[in-house]
């Protein structure tokens, strides 16, 4: 997942929760502790824990080493969900809702 300069590997649960494309949970927000300006709809990752930086470096090395992602085959009835983070951020952080 990439949001601006913030990058991390994350497992997402897929559920039908309404019209918003994504819900960010309280635990995730608490862990990353971003600065959120509700008036300007901006999210700044200025207080991420050191672990995030280490994960970003590791992910960057993996991307350079391997351009193709090998995904397991989907079983009948399973679905693959892709999220457009850049589009989400362009739409505005006002769509963020507490869970």
Query: Would you report the number of β strands?
Result: 4
Strand order of the largest sheet: 1-2
Beta-strand percentage?
A: 5-15%
For the termini, the CA-CA separation is 20 Å
Summarize the amount of helix as a percent range: 25-40%
Largest sheet: 2 strands, antiparallel
Low-confidence stretches: 57-61
Could you say how many structural domains there are in total?
Answer: 1
Compute the CA-based radius of gyration.
Answer: 15 Å
Shape by Cα distribution? globular
Secondary-structure element pattern, one letter each: EEHEEHH
State the secondary-structure class: alpha+beta
> pLDDT average, as an integer?
69
Our count of helices gives 3
Task: Sum this structure up briefly.
The chain has 99 residues and is an alpha+beta fold. 30% of the residues lie in helices and 10% in strands.
Could you characterize the architecture of this molecule?
Strand 1 and strand 2 form a beta hairpin. About 5% of the residues have low confidence. The longest helix is centred in the middle third of the chain and has 16 residues. The strands form two sheets. The chain has a two-stranded antiparallel sheet with strand order 1-2. A two-stranded antiparallel ribbon has the order 3-4. It has one domain. The chain is of the alpha+beta class and 99 residues long.
């Amino acid at each position: 997942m990439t949001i601006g300069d913030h990058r991390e590997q994350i497992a997402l649960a897929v559920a039908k929760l309404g019209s918003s494309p994504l819900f960010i949970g309280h635990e995730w927000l608490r862990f990353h502790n971003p600065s959120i300006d509700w008036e300007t709809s901006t999210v700044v990752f200025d207080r991420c824990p050191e672990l995030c930086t280490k994960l970003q470096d590791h992910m960057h090395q993996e991307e350079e080493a391997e351009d193709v992602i090998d995904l397991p085959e989907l079983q009948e009835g399973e679905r693959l969900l892709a999220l457009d983070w850049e589009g989400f951020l362009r739409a505005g952080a006002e769509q963020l809702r507490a869970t």
